[in-house]
């Protein structure tokens, strides 16, 4: 039996959630609430009920779960009110602006005996899934360094995402996705240090980009970069592992893998470069190297909702746990601290 859902916020992501609910095999859309009357009118014009207030939405006993898709700075009060009103709650990312706010949400959910999670939809991105599957397979050994990048060239959107008071900036916007993905890939690693540099090329109020290096106690490294002023983009993923390398140039492309079969060749021929010869940088051949592409993984982002509904019914554990939310939030806080101090910081769990 489908569960009735209401969406708070009918903007970009709110509309995304509504459209998924309308086509869902596990959800039935009850309606939306938005403080903007024009957005409410737009919803009604699309045949969707628009609640007159958040209180009216919460009072609707048929609504079992609520998705909160509003600016970051008002997540806390809205999530808590919905949880206290007896609703299971999904919050858009970043779930909160601080670890303290997140703990208040978790405490309220536990006290109300309601499920609470964050919408980490990028766990279903096919580029991430390809890298994750390669690591899990052990095909080219343990990763030594994974670089994850998102590049654009249009700056921050001219809305609340560019304003500090609303929790704007790229660490909180795209950074949370890259951090969450990398923490899942390196799930068995313990963080040692964090170093983060932010950029303010197109926006002086919040970060419009950043460079994040996470070093693990094993010596492995995770690197994340978001840029909004890049007119030539660097690859989406690059992985250096014990037995080879992997590359995804763009999320629409297949993962290219190069697996080292033999470390040494008997006779490496020097390569003529512009200024001389080199054996160190001589290319490998098919005798010592296997090169191939992985199939693009199949993915259905609506499995997020299927899992949450099953978790409500006690059939599955929720995929995105409170502890994962805590770790992601703490890493983002360390990013801001490192950038402010201009130094590498020892990470404490």
Radius of gyration: 23 Å
The CATH superfamily label of the largest domain reads Dihydrodipicolinate Reductase, domain 2
Q: Could you say what the CATH architecture of the largest domain is?
A: 2-Layer Sandwich
Provide the low-confidence segments as ranges: none
Q: What is CATH's topology name of the largest domain?
A: Dihydrodipicolinate Reductase, domain 2
Q: What's the average pLDDT?
A: 95
Major beta sheet summary? 9 strands, mixed
**What would you call the structural class?**
alpha/beta
Strand order of the largest sheet: 15-12-11-10-6-9-8-7-16
Helicity level, as a percent range? Answer: 25-40%
For this structure, what is the CATH class of the largest domain? Alpha Beta
Order of helices and strands: EHEHHEHEHEHEHEEEEEEEEEHHE
Number of domains: 2
Distance between the termini: 41 Å
What general form does the structure show? elongated
| Total count of helical runs of at least 4 residues | 9
The count of DSSP E runs of length 2 or more, i.e. the number of strands, is: 16
Ordered list of secondary-structure elements with their pairings:
Blueprint lengths: L2 E6 L3 H11 L4 E7 L3 H9 L8 H6 L3 E6 L6 H10 L3 E5 L6 H14 L3 E4 L6 H12 L5 E9 L18 H16 L5 E9 L9 E8 L4 E7 L9 E5 L2 E5 L7 E5 L10 E3 L2 E3 L10 E5 L9 H10 L9 H20 L3 E2 L3
Helix pairs in contact: 4-5, 5-9, 7-9
Q: If you had to describe this structure to a student in words, what would you say it looks like?
A:
It is a single chain. The strands form three sheets. The protein has a nine-stranded mixed sheet. Helix 5 (99-112) runs antiparallel to helix 9 (322-341) and helix 7 crosses helix 9 (322-341). The protein has 349 residues and is of the alpha/beta class. It folds into two domains: 3-119, Rossmann fold (3-Layer(aba) Sandwich); 123-255 and 330-346, Dihydrodipicolinate Reductase, domain 2, CATH 3.30.360. 31% of the residues lie in helices and 26% in strands.
């Amino acid at each position: 039996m489908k569960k009735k859902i209401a969406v708070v916020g009918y903007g970009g992501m709110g509309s995304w959630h509504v459209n998924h609910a309308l086509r869902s095999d596990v959800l039935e859309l009850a309606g939306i609430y938005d403080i903007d009357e024009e957005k409410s009118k737009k919803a009604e014009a699309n045949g969707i009920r628009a609640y007159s207030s958040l209180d009216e939405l919460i009072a609707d006993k048929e609504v079992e779960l609520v998705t909160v898709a509003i600016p970051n700075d008002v997540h806390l009060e809205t999530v808590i009110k919905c949880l206290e009103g007896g609703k299971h709650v999904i919050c858009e990312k970043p779930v909160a602006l601080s670890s303290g706010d997140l703990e208040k949400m978790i405490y309220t959910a536990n006290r109300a005996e309601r499920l609470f999670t964050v919408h980490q939809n990028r766990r279903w991105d096919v580029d991430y899934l390809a890298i994750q599957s390669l690591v899990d397979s052990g095909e080219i050994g343990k990763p030594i360094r994974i670089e994850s990048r998102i590049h654009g060239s249009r700056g921050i959107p001219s809305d609340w995402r560019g304003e500090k008071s609303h929790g704007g900036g790229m660490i909180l916007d795209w950074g949370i996705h890259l951090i969450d993905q990398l923490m899942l890939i390196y799930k068995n690693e313990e963080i040692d240090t964090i170093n983060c540099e932010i950029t303010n090329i197109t926006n002086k109020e919040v970060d419009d980009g950043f460079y994040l290096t996470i070093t693990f106690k094993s010596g492995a490294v995770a690197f994340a970069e978001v840029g909004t002023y890049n007119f030539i983009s660097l690859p989406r993923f690059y992985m250096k592992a014990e037995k080879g390398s992997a590359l995804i140039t763009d999320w629409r492309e297949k993962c290219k893998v190069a697996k080292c079969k033999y470390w040494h060749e008997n006779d490496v021929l020097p390569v003529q470069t512009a200024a001389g010869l080199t054996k160190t940088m001589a290319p490998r051949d098919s005798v010592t190297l296997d090169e191939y592409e992985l199939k693009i993984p199949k993915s259905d982002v609506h499995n997020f909702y299927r899992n949450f509904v099953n978790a409500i019914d006690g059939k599955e554990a929720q995929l995105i746990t409170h502890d994962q939310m805590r770790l992601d939030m703490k890493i983002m806080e360390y990013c801001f601290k490192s950038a402010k101090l201009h130094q590498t910081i020892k990470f404490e769990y």
